[in-house]
Write a structure and sequence with these properties.
The complex is a heterodimer of chains A (678) and B (306). Helices cover 31% and strands 16% of the residues of chain A. By secondary structure, chain A is α+β, with helices and mostly antiparallel strands. Chain B is mainly alpha-helical and 306 residues long. Helix content of chain B is 74%, strand content 0%. Classes of the chains: A alpha+beta (678), B mainly alpha (306).
Chain lengths: 678, 306
Amino acid sequence: MKKIKIARSVGLVIVAALVAASCTTHASKSEFFGKISPPEGQVLRYVTGSEPESLDPQMSSGQPEARIDMALYDGLAEYQPKTMEPIPSIAERWVTNEDASEFVFFLRHDAKFSNGDPITANDFVYTIRRGFRPELASRLAYLGYDIKYAEAFNSLDSFVRDPQTGRFLLASEAAPPSDGAKGDSAAPSNAQPAAPPTAAEQEAQLQKRLAMKGEDAARDTDFHKFIHSPERLVVPSDEKERQKAFKANPKLEALVAGKELVPVRAEDIGVEAVDDYTLRITMRQPAPYFLGLVPHQFFRAIPQKVVEKYGVNWTKPENFVGSGAFKLQEHKPYNDLTVVRNPYFWDAANVHLDKIIFYPLEDNTTIMNLYKAGDVDATFNHTVPASWLKSGVRYMKDYMDAPENGSAYWQINTTKPPMNDVRVRKALNMAIDRDALADYRVVSKPNNTFVPKGILHGYPLLQGFNLDVEGAKRLLVEAGYKDAAGNYDPKKFPADQVEVTYNTNDSNRQIAEFVQSQWKQNLGITISLRNVEWKTFQDLRSKLQYKGIAGGAGWTGDYMDPFTYLGLFTTNGGDNGTGWTDKKYNAMLDEANHEPDQAKRYEMLAKCETYMLDAAPVIPLLKPATSWMKKPYVKGMYPNPGTLHAWKYVYIEHDSAKWDQGMPDMTTDQLAELSAKE
Amino acid sequence: MFRFIVRRLIVTVPMVLIVITLTWGLIRLAPGNFYSTDKKLPPAIEKNIRTKYGLDQPWYVQYGRMMSNIVRLDFGNSLKYENETVNDILKRTLPVSATLGILAYLLALVVGVFFGTLAALKPNSKLDYISMALAMLGISVPNFVLGPILVLVFSLSLYWLPPARWDGFPSWNLVLPVLTLSAIYMAYIARLTRAGMLEVLRSDYIRTARAKGLSERQVIVRHALRGGLLPVVSFTGPALAILISGTVVVERIFAMPGLGNYFINANLNRDEPLIIGIVAFVSIAVLIFNLLVDVAYGFIDPRIRY
């Protein structure tokens, strides 16, 4: 009998504890979430997301890795902790030529690797060249394709040389005839005009590109002359691929016949150490957005000697040498990764933390459990499960809710009826109440344009798609979905030809169901939903095999510039996924990117976006908002648009009077201006 | 006996190879690649990756390379974590999963056998009903419900135990995952023990033992349990094999760096060498544990002889 009593009392304890648990969650509303007890000393325990696939900054493509890389490696520039704009780091300053096709970085003289070796311009030349090596097969290489000849080198292409004269053929000579020949992605760069420029024009152009004044003008060198000579023709070195290129551009075959192929070498890429502390990067075309990419881990300095000595194992803790504020101490995969202060770091005096422990965790509930129990100090983005948010976590003072550099939208298969009709695409866009959707989704803000509104300083706020049910119906009537009397008739719409295909995921499902009900309510059209696994989804989308609409696409900006979004539609392949391309649009983008004045350039890009939205190949829905938590004693860490933290600014505040009582102050001049507009 | 074992081991080899071949084929049928991410790669980069990992070669070359690796018991490098070999990963994760699995099974064995026996001794008593009701509960409450409840109570309300993460052995971090993991086995074992014991206690040799005047304790511990536990023994083989080779859900909830956690990610990442390594390991484990069970039968059950 005694046993029964024990069982009973155990049961009672469990019930009592459950009741207590539910009480405590309610009681602590609007204060902080869970236990607040700062760790001793300057140690940060941070949840960074899934296990890093690699600690080699040029091989690790995801956000979890990016955050660790930011501790281990330093670049020419670092992300500003609030706005993510590039701020000087190893490069003390930089200058740009007039059309933003060349950048000169002036390096500080005291930058060192974590083994004490100095970091010079040559290390950056090595790093950047390595990133494009075909045998390295980095997934990030595309980030630097605008550097002259980088894409050709990464693609195993060759220059074409006339064996008699030793002259290299130029890209302009092979420009496809303008009469109707379609630009094909397989064809070599067709950026050059068809008619070869005259010598005088070339000289004028060269002068323009070189225009840097006074002390900023880095020494002219032989390499510099080479890299500014007219762009050479490149063709695939591989026989089969070359034949393909020939097919796409018949002129090419005749040109290349009888010529010798000279493979593009790493040394041909537009990266040059002018001297030990001056680095010059030359682009194939104006690329004003490149500076925003410079802090990316792909361009952060790695130690040549160590990389060459240990090969793929150079990032193991026993071999590791880095360039960042911290160095790798211990790595237990799937459990924790510890970095400690790097005494050789050029700015070591201003690094506050002694140690950061990164926890590679993926399960959101587990992450929040650890956070609540006080075992971790901060989490990465989108870690708070929706049900927790609704139960009040979103009102707590340690919840980080700020707009992100991203855009959630649906893609439309513009190649198949009925969606090949722009009126249908627009009508569907106009029949969605995005405010209601954002409200329902909680961790999102409505977005009716493609480039997320109000995040990029100085970019115009466009009109976009607004809820207009009558207008949508009018468009559908125009498209022929009407009864005999000419009124809108939803039964005429071939709803069975359209479905929303999305990749299996709770939030995708919720959004899809919401939009489905909006269309049903507003237009009387029932469009079915279909969920498929992620990799299958990608396959359907890239081959344009989905019916009507692909839901679940999100685009996170690679850098802080509208072009990271607008550039998606310049080719048919890649992430476009809609089948919509437009020559005029491409020309408009190209023109905008040649504009040196940033404000004017943004105006021009905004026109491109308006043009694109008018064709409606997508259904923009939301812009994501950050959703993560940070204990009030963690300072110097901000909910910036990419959730990438420059760790040297972060510290643990032990004086509770100075703790954050809500979101940290995000205002800089620019952000203040933006929030006034919102 | 010896011949039996050898014969069974010989059969194991082709079975594992068949399992691996099927797995390899299924990976190929699954859409997507280990290198595909949210963003579509330019064709040149995709080609570089395919060349680097030999994916540009015909399927029979890839299959042959994989098989020759496996025969040498070297599963190669993981595709996702390129500076780690599959063997390293197995070596690192197996102790984690095995610690959890063995602890959970031992706990389940002790508690399950104890309550199962008690219940069998006094069938239809209150004790019997309560322990069997609890066992039924244990079987029906899935571990993805039990785990979070335990965390909610002991970590987030009482702040007694850490809610997740591996911190070596022994540590307080183990308590909740082991409890969660063992609940269902505890319940099964209790029911199996009760059923087995009820049957044995009615048999003639127990009556003989009692007639000899042995104490009740001796009757149960020395005679009845041996026969009554036979169903538990046959349950142990597959159960241990599954427990040791990683339990996906519990490792996920408690963020344990074990085989199960790797296995699920390897599948999501289409990390072929890692998937094949883990599948090979798990199938070998299952076959060997089943063999061990059969061998153990020979010792426990006097009716079985090889």
